[in-house]
Write a structure and sequence with these properties.
The complex is a heterodimer of chains A (322) and B (332). Helices cover 34% and strands 23% of the residues of chain A. Chain A is of the alpha/beta class and 322 residues long. Chain A is globular and about 70 Å long. Classes of the chains: A alpha/beta (322), B alpha/beta (332).
Chain lengths: 322, 332
């Protein structure tokens, strides 16, 4: 059976600036990622700003066409889907964005938007059924139709509106949610509520979630699998528990070590040295992390490390090539 | 006994929104009756969610009070090696003499400090010029270079424009500028919020190192409890315009007293521990019409009738001189 979503060797190069003096930026560099329908999982895509995680998410959603590589939905090229197949894809793979206030039209009542979505996708044929489905779906995120009826987006708190936007995504019975930094705009005290909703939905609805974030701690909390991105490439990928407790790639290790742990008894030991001026890591010949890697050798500077299968995880590092 | 360098008494700083004709249209009570002491030589963390008033508090401590922000009541007294200064009584020119030399402010987002069309070097000159009338350009340049070397910043940065630098480098430049004249107090508002974790760590460690070398006082405002755990000595927790708890950072993390702090700390996800974390029920209150009594009572699982009607005051707990909490549970 074909995977729900399968990205193979996806590369996206953006051209910046004019025709003559423009430069190129490789936002996503030869990334492969598979989401299988039969495995209900939360997969986290973790990276710093500029690591290409959002671009990758948009490619998987069919919103940006990759420069190289393919994305297949149930075996069919996402960028060639038409008609009923495209509709099916849009229903089964749903996005959740960072800022819920940008996902809703500020001039439209939120309940009308949800009911409109149901009618558009022909999930129900009349308004009465649409209301019933809306109410049931809102209950999954701890809200009800009564609570949101007649309200505009600005009348909600960020946490509430993000829950509504998750409910909106659930209306079409998706198999995969692609959530791009869904809690980074949310107040700290409400953040875990949203994260817990995602965990519960996975269980209740047997739905996979691709959780895109810069936050390793919440990624650890929700994920089954994790992929660590650095400057457009996945450097380490596999079971979250193992990768985050026993990192093998030097970048994953530095990231974990630099995380400000909320524990005053467990403080950073030595001072980290920050690099000087910007280096052109995107165009580096060898490993993109070599400039910052404490273990870098000559080989790391000269050639791209291969993607190796080590102890059940994929890892791109020359150190482990022996 | 630790000496106090800043003493804040019953500070009320509101955003007063006026309608046409000067009639008060609305008041946002961002800082509402804060009393607190900052000890000399400490790193004090101020924690709280967005919209709790922590940024307004630190801005007011710096003296950056511009309409619609208005100090309605209270006082801020600096004790700078014997000089007592009532900050809120100073005029603009006296404030600017104080700024950079005695107290520096590192705001959220470095671009709001750095002038985009001037080289870093020239901006450093401007600051020095505003405090020293007679100075020698070569000497000053030497001073800047030494300062950059000490902070581990490349000298090339001095001749760059802000946009040529990465976000992390700009923030380091702002720290260099803030520490150039060796002020006694540095106030930092979310100094690392938009940065990546590795850069964040570098910046925080740089701040802590400078604090140690200059033996000055650092106040750091951030919502990120991890940052406080890593660098703060003492921690004050704010909720809806008020300080609800103070303690050493170890005390607050190990034995949080206020129900809000308890929730906040228990909700923190940690790598290596998958136990379920609960969010705090309800939502942060509006600062326009804050709840009566204890402002946390609508969300508090222990709230009683007293919590709805009477406001709990920040009071010392037991005999521990470092521990304060504003909660009726502890006033019995």
């Amino acid at each position: 059976m074909a995977a729900l979503i399968e990205a193979k060797n996806v590369t996206k190069i953006f051209k910046i600036g004019g025709l003559v003096f423009g430069s190129k930026l490789t936002a996503v560099d030869d990334v492969s990622l598979t989401v299988k329908e039969e495995e209900t999982k939360v997969i986290s895509l973790v990276g710093e700003s500029g690591s290409g995680k959002t671009t990758l998410a948009r490619i998987l959603l069919g919103l940006i066409k990759p420069t190289k590589g393919t994305v297949a939905y149930r075996g069919n090229d996402v960028f060639k889907l038409k008609g009923a197949r495209l509709m099916e894809f849009r229903k089964e793979v749903q996005p959740i964005f960072q800022n819920p206030f940008e996902s809703f039209n500020p001039l439209k009542k939120v309940d009308q938007y949800l009911i409109g979505t149901i009618l558009n996708y022909k999930i129900a044929n009349n308004e009465k059924d649409a209301k019933r489905i809306t109410d049931n779906t809102l209950h999954l995120v701890g809200l009800s139709l009564d609570e949101i009826e007649g309200k505009y987006p600005h009348e909600f708190s960020g946490g509430e509106l993000q829950r509504v936007s998750i409910a909106r995504a659930l209306l079409t019975n998706p198999k995969l949610l692609i959530a791009d930094e869904p809690v980074s705009m949310i107040d700290a005290s409400l953040r875990m509520e949203i994260i817990n909703i995602m965990l519960d939905l996975k269980q209740k609805l047997k739905m996979s979630i691709l959780y895109i974030t810069h936050d390793l701690a919440t990624a650890y909390y929700v994920s089954d699998d994790i992929a660590i991105m650095y400057r457009g490439s996945i450097v380490e990928q596999g079971p979250a528990e193992e990768i985050l407790t026993k990192p093998l790639h030097p970048y994953t290790a530095i990231l974990l070590d630099s995380l400000p742990k909320p524990d005053p008894k467990n403080r950073w030991k030595e001072e980290i040295k920050l690099s000087g001026l910007e280096v052109k890591e995107f165009e580096a010949l060898g490993c993109k992390f070599a400039n910052r890697c404490p273990y870098a050798t000559n080989r790391c500077l000269k050639a791209r490390p291969p993607l190796l299968n080590v102890k059940g995880r994929l890892i791109s590092c020359w150190l482990l090539a022996e | 006994m630790t000496e106090e360098i800043i003493s804040i008494k019953n500070l009320k700083a509101y955003y007063v929104l006026k309608a046409v004709g000067g009639i008060v249209h609305a008041e946002i009570k961002a800082v509402d009756g804060v009393s607190m002491k900052v000890h000399s030589g400490e790193i004090l963390g101020i924690a709280g969610e967005s919209g709790c008033g922590k940024s307004t508090l630190i801005k007011t401590i710096y003296g950056l009070v511009e309409p619609p922000l208005t100090v309605v009541d209270g006082s801020i007294t600096y004790n700078l090696e014997g000089r007592k200064i009532s900050l809120l009584e100073l005029d603009k020119s006296k404030l600017s003499k104080l700024w950079f030399k005695d107290v520096s402010y590192i705001p959220q987002g470095s671009m709001s400090v750095l002038n985009p069309v001037r080289k870093i070097k020239d901006q450093f000159f401007d600051v020095i010029k505003s405090h020293y009338e007679n100075f020698n350009v070569d000497e000053m340049e030497q001073l800047m270079i030494e300062h950059f070397d000490r902070l581990g910043l490349p000298r090339e940065v001095l001749s760059s424009y802000p946009h040529q630098l990465s976000g992390g480098m700009r923030q380091r430049v702002v720290i260099a500028l803030a520490t150039l004249l060796k002020p006694r107090v540095i106030l930092a508002d979310e100094p690392t919020t938009a940065l990546d974790v590795v850069v964040q760590r570098g910046i925080l460690q740089l701040l802590a190192r400078v604090q140690q070398e200059l033996k000055n006082t650092l106040v750091v405002v951030t919502h990120d409890m991890g940052v406080h755990a890593q660098i703060a000595h003492r921690l004050a927790v704010m909720y809806a315009g008020k300080i609800v708890e103070i303690g050493t950072v170890e005390e607050v993390f190990e034995d949080p007293l206020h129900p809000y702090t308890k929730h906040l700390i228990r909700a923190l996800p940690m790598i290596g521990d998958k136990a379920r974390r609960a969010g705090i029920p309800g939502k942060p209150p509006s600062l326009r019409k804050p709840p009566s009594g204890c402002r946390f009572h609508p969300r508090c699982p222990y709230a009683t009738d007293m919590c709805k009607s009477a406001e709990p005051l920040l009071a010392q707990i037991g005999r521990n001189p470092s521990r304060y909490v504003a909660c009726h549970l502890y006033s019995g």
